């Protein structure tokens, strides 16, 4: 079923500065919600808070998955429940190859789903799933043996994020500026890969500054996010309007938009 409900969510930095200032959102299976807003409006803060990043404090409201609050859970437990975040700036992990990272991530999920008992994916099955996903997302094989994100280009990092998503098959995917750093061919491939995964099994929140990724992932809803709040909501047409008119009309007076 996988219904994500965000209720009057407030998120503060560790110094108490409130960045997200009351967000309500419901994401159902098969729905794509685009969150669009200027740089610095708090989009990544919202994404990190949903995933349970310790640098961000929930100062009000709740986040529920299938009626159960995620707030008491750590990031790993949220992932086990079916939440996935593709980072705007993926971390490098020198010493851990892409291949072993992906297998560990899959095995951690399988273990949690088996009630805490190890249930590692058989290697032939892992190779088969991995090869299929890599061909679909056009991920070069040579990346598998390299250390995760270590010296990767922006586009390579984004491909690995989505490859991971394709293998983990989350119920709710939060994609933070997955379009940034991609050339147009990579954008088409990756956005197409994301679109293929959206359906009865997965809903998505697509966070973006630019409309162009939404040409390849059709949003059911577009939410304009400025200074920590949704200030307008609509359908795909709203995204096109933003592309031509910018965000200025939605900014509170005195807060200049840089996009
Ligand atoms: N870990 C952090 N430490 C200090 N300031 C932060 C941190 N995370 C976010 N901020 C601040 O919060 C605001 C919103 O940032 P962010 O959520 O990254 O916006 P967006 O993703 O919309 O560009 C910015 O002013 C940013 O500097
Ligand atoms: Mg951001």
Describe this structure in words.
33% of the residues lie in helices and 27% in strands. The chain is of the alpha/beta class and 259 residues long. The protein has one domain: P-loop containing nucleotide triphosphate hydrolases (Rossmann fold), CATH 3.40.50. Magnesium ion binds at residues 43-44, 88, 176-177. Adenosine-5'-diphosphate (ADP) is lined by residues 13, 19, 37, 39-45, 55.
Short description, anyone?
The chain is of the alpha/beta class. The chain is built from seven helices and twelve strands.
Task: Name its key features.
259 residues; alpha/beta; Rossmann fold; six-stranded mixed sheet; 12 strands; globular; binds adenosine-5'-diphosphate; binds magnesium ion
CATH superfamily: P-loop containing nucleotide triphosphate hydrolases
One letter per element, helices H and strands E, the order comes to EEEHEEHEEHHEHEHEEEH
Strand count: 12
Q: What Rg do the Cα atoms give?
A: 18 Å
Average pLDDT score:
94
Strand content: 25-35%
Structural class: alpha/beta
Q: Return the CATH class.
A: Alpha Beta
The biggest beta sheet is recorded as: 6 strands, mixed
Bulk shape = globular
Report the total helices: 7
Distance between the termini: 37 Å
CATH topology: Rossmann fold
Low-confidence spans: none
In percent, how helical is the residue content?
25-40%
């Amino acid at each position: 079923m996988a219904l994500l409900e965000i209720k009057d969510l407030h998120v503060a930095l560790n110094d108490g500065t409130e960045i997200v200032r009351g967000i309500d959102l419901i994401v159902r299976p098969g729905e794509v919600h685009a969150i669009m807003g200027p740089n610095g409006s708090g989009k990544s803060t919202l994404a990190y808070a949903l995933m349970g990043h310790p640098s961000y404090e929930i100062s009000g409201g709740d986040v529920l998955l299938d009626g159960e609050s995620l707030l008491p859970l750590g990031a790993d437990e949220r992932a086990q429940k079916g939440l996935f975040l593709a980072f705007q700036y993926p971390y490098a992990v020198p010493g851990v190859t892409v291949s072993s990272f992906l297998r560990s991530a899959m095995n951690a999920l399988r273990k949690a789903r088996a009630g805490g008992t190890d249930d590692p994916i058989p290697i032939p099955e892992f190779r088969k799933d991995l090869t299929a996903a890599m061909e679909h997302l056009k991920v070069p094989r040579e990346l598998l043996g390299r250390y995760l994100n270590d010296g990767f280009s922006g586009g390579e990092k984004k491909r690995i994020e989505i490859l991971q998503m394709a293998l983990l098959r989350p119920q709710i995917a939060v994609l933070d500026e997955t379009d940034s750093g991609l050339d147009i061919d990579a954008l088409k491939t990756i956005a197409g890969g994301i679109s293929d995964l959206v359906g009865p099994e997965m809903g998505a929140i697509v966070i973006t500054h630019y409309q162009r990724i939404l040409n390849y992932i059709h949003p059911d809803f577009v939410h304009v996010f400025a200074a920590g709040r949704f200030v307008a909501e609509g359908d795909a047409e709203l995204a096109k309007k933003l592309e031509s008119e910018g965000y200025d009309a939605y900014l509170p007076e005195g807060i200049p938009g840089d996009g």
